[in-house]
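Researcher: Next sequence.
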Amino acid sequence: MLVPPPPQTPTISLPPKQQAMSCLLPFTTSRKSKSSTLSTFSDDKTPHSQTPRFSPPREEAFPQANFASSDDSEREVALAKLKVEMEERKVDVYVVPSEDEHLSEYVAEADLRRGFITGFTGSAGTAVITRTENLLYVDSRYWVQAPLQVSSAWKVKRVGDKDQRNWSEDLIKGSETECLRIGIDPSVISAASGGAHSASIGPLLDAPNLVVVPISQNLVDLVWTSRPSRPTTLIDLHPIEFTGLHASKKLAAFVESETFQSLSSKPEGYFLSTLDELAWLLNLRAVGDIPDTPVFHAYLWIPLSTSLNSFSSIKTLFINPVKLSSEASCYLDGLGIVVRPYDEVWSFLQEVGKSLSMSMTEEKQSKKRVVLTGQSVTWKAQLAVGKDSLESVMSPILESKAVKNEVELEGMRKAYLRDGRATVRWMARLDTLITKENKQIDEFEAGDLLTRYRSEEKNFRGLAYENISGSGPDAALPHYSPVKGKCRIVDRETPYVNDSGAQYLDGTIDTTRTMHFGTPTKEQKDAFTRVLQGHIAVETTVFPQGMSGAPLNILARKALWKAGLDFGREYFSSERAGHGRWDELTIGSYLSVHEGPQGISTTNTYPFRVGHVISNEPGYYKEGHFGMRVESALECVEVKTEGSYGGVTWLGFSRLTRVPIDRRLVETSLLSPEEEKWLEQHNELCKTDILPLLKGKQNQEAREWLKRC
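Model: Next structure:
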């Protein structure tokens, strides 16, 4: 049995998932009694060096969803039935994207259609099913994981590897020799550009030999007999003490947005389908609809004119009414919002489209009447309103949400401080367990231990995303998440990467640290130090107002490039976000961990503004061996400079994250004097801010560990 440090008080009640970690921590006996759901640490004194150093990841060592209980034979039956449905609808190809009806990056279990039909559990990827082949297209984050999870019935396409095209480009290329009929559910694919996370129908519609057939009944749903229902959890009102601005003022500012004033068309209303924008605008949150993201399934219609029918001149929320408490219903009524059932949105949009079409026929107008929407909208919405009547614009909500107000910023500063305390306590305990007590801790246990410490903090509402906790070759998989009882032991020979976050009422956390519990090799130290140099270069840069994040991409890679190293190069010029491609977006305020519109890629042209909060996350991944990553959240701030060239306002970054860097991985001979000073000041600031929060005998271990950093 584990012999813990002295108990901590007071005892608190935790959700069942977090109760499972009680045996890892210096808590009371009552918590230990709840540890039966956790695999037991081995007290065996076998040296960690006996752990296979570079063993490849196993298929089962990946995150599982409800559909993962289906074996390959069951999946093959569903796939065969789907092909029968394709034949009945006379389509040659059926496309299954990862997204839901709101083009969300992360989706509810009921919407994991691509995951169910393929067995692949990654958050991104597209399945293309033909009469003779089954293809799965994935980016570099999943090049290793995807082949291990899918059966031999599937062929994995590694997009960007050896000039491998994406799925739509392959279909267009294939149509050069034969005409293809492609079926797709129009509610789960973008109408145009595709945005940051979603697949797009646009290129296919323009291809001469492709016929794209919108199939309203999702074919995967027809063959997924055990498909779960969407949750019906109640919606919460997010208080003004965390939002800093009442929803009525947000709505008023939205209607008066400059975006609408400069249009050549006449907007009749705005169709809002993006879940985090809707939650932010109305100051509402919900836990349970989408794992780890406090949003809810709904659509919002906001009238911008009164020239159409009376039904479209009222703010309308389309949502499952059982999700609304009496308090939420009264709140919406106070905002002048009527509620209609979720599925009625499509008939509503069709009626709006008909009214617009009739008005164009009956009247000669100086300005064309249109429905506005953001740049991430489904093909189904376009079909309902009419292509000529639906106009996409840069969402004013997206832009406003990205610029945090002072209440939101102060909340995030406090949240990152508390989370820093939890993370330091975790780092100290994990270090002790592995290096001093010689415990065999696996990747799942290590990550879940941090979750337990976070759950002790004020305003904690759950994780921000599934723990990424990897050692050895698993750390080289940017989105690897271990499975309880089926993962590697955290060894002493390779770096251990923990990329995880929490949802607090006053802020969303996104932090990555790399640790080593033995003696790093020269190769490991060299690679980590170059990653750290890129991290430092981004954080310390000063730039003129109006600059986008594109130049920062090169700063993050400069030190790696000097050694002929890189990461995610196939997406070097992509606008999409992700760990392997290092193009993180805005971090939300108790919302999504990935937002926008700014980012750090060579194609992103959106300028940084004071109040943006982004993550700084370079990394390096040696497939089959080890990986490393350093990530901190940065607040964009105005910087005072000695000069004032052209009256330009200069911007820079202030770090929110308060988690020390593991010096064991740093090769100081590679650092410049300025970089050495940065590292010293970085860890000293963590001590200054976190040590006063580590009071009492129960935190003695964490205090001593932090002082040594």
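Model: The two ends are 29 Å apart (CA to CA). The first helix runs from residue 16 to 19.
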